């Protein structure tokens, strides 16, 4: 009897070990993605021709906006003693709206937004809008292609201060970047899909094809927020196209990382081997960080499930659009600024800077279509591809900013086994716009390491 029990116990242990190993290992890569025609018309009906683009919004759109700003309903006063904890404080919102009505000059900003060369190209039925800046090179300076992608609620406006840094030769560097910064489909002046299914993986395919059409079979890639998610998918699905991947929002979504988080939430001492001591407060108390994440990601669940419902309201009201986006610039830049009456908005940005970004949503009526990216990515079919569980095979660099989403050192290597550069900075979610010099220098440093490693 004892031998039988021992044998059965051994079988159970081996079986459970096998099942655990199966769960923790990444799934097989999905088969090559089908190239779907996402725009109107028949496949191939529009050729991938590069066309110059200039932002030129009609007077009709601007007059309509002014009317809506002047005739919005009275704002509901905030509760006593509340700053930004309930979302956008309406006293601060009124200040921004008054500035928008009386001091913000779109025609002047239009000139500013048109200062870089802009183009569109049709890829798989979608007109993709992008900025293409070529550097003025000196002898001995190599030019490396770099694809820049933004996220939500950002836009190409995030990159206007970092573009001159990336495209100007830096002292001590023997290379500089030729930058292609693109609006994600459904954002800004990039057209949205007319049929469902355009998630991060499919958009990765679109940008791989776009870069190929522009003459770049291999390129470096950099992104934050959803730009990082898309480029992570691109690096996994098309590693032959990516020379290296730099992210200011490296995410880890593996079963092993969830297991580590679960165990260390009960036994914090378990984390000693994967969390730096100086970063302990960014992970623990686990309960507090869980509630914070829950509180700050309500938008994600809403946009991932009912994007068109929230889109109907936000797309109809410039005041609602401003409140929805600016609240993220408060909490995303420094979540402790929720306790400030001014939300800390002017610490790093001006109202003009922030309204440029908001206007790119308003004049293109892209609120709803931008929200849909969440519903097309965070669903069973797309998540079932298992791409976020795959190790990224290309050289990777992660720049972690203090008030952004955080992944501990011992978790990053699960997803990024070729992590060649890891850095930590003060700052928040919108790093390219908040700290362009810091992020720009980090990109140069990371790519320099990748270039040297490639020569070995």
From TrEMBL:
Catalyzes juvenile hormone hydrolysis. This is Epoxide hydrolase. Residues 50-159 form the Epoxide hydrolase N-terminal domain. Coiled coil: none annotated. Gene3D superfamilies: alpha/beta hydrolase. GO terms for cellular component: endoplasmic reticulum membrane. Belongs to the peptidase S33 family.
């Amino acid at each position: 009897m004892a031998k039988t029990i021992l044998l059965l116990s051994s079988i159970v242990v081996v079986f459970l070990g096998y099942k655990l190993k199966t769960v923790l290992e990444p799934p097989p890569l999905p088969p090559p993605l089908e190239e779907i025609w996402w725009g109107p018309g028949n496949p191939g009906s529009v050729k991938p021709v590069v066309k110059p683009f200039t932002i030129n919004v009609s007077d009709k759109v601007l007059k309509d906006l002014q009317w809506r700003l002047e005739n919005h309903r009275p704002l509901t006063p905030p509760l006593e003693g509340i700053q930004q904890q309930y979302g956008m404080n309406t006293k601060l919102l009124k200040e921004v709206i008054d500035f928008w009505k009386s001091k913000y000059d779109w025609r002047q900003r239009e000139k500013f937004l048109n200062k870089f060369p802009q183009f569109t190209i049709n890829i798989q039925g979608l007109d993709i809008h992008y900025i293409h800046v070529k550097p003025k090179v000196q002898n001995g300076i190599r030019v490396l292609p770099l694809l820049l992608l933004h996220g939500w609620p950002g836009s190409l406006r995030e990159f206007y201060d970092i573009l001159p840094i990336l495209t100007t030769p830096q002292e001590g560097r023997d290379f500089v970047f030729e930058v292609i910064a693109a609006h994600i489909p459904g954002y800004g002046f990039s057209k949205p899909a007319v049929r469902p299914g355009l998630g991060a993986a499919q958009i990765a395919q679109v940008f791989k094809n776009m870069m190929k059409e522009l003459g770049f079979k291999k390129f470096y890639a950099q992104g934050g927020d959803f730009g990082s998610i898309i480029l992570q998918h691109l690096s996994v699905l098309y590693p032959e196209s990516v020379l290296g991947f730099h992210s200011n929002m490296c995410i880890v979504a593996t079963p092993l990382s969830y297991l580590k988080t679960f165990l260390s939430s009960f036994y914090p001492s378990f984390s000693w081997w994967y969390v730096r001591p100086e970063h302990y407060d960014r992970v623990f108390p686990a309960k507090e960080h869980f509630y914070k994440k829950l509180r700050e990601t309500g938008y994600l669940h809403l946009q991932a499930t009912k994007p068109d419902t929230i889109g109907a309201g936000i797309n109809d009201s410039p005041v609602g659009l401003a409140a929805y986006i600016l609240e993220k610039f408060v909490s995303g830049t420094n979540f402790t600024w929720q306790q400030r009456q001014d939300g800390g908005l002017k610490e790093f940005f001006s109202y003009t800077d922030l309204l440029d970004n908001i206007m790119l949503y308003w004049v293109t009526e892209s609120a709803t279509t931008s929200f849909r990216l969440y519903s097309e990515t965070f669903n069973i079919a797309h998540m079932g591809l298992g791409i976020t569980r795959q190790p990224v095979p290309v050289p990777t660099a992660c720049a972690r900013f203090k008030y952004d989403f955080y992944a501990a050192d011992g978790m990053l290597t699960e997803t990024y086994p070729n992590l060649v550069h890891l850095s930590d900075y003060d700052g928040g979610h919108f790093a390219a716009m908040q700290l362009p010099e810091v992020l720009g220098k980090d990109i140069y440093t990371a790519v320099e390491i990748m270039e040297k490693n490639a020569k070995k």
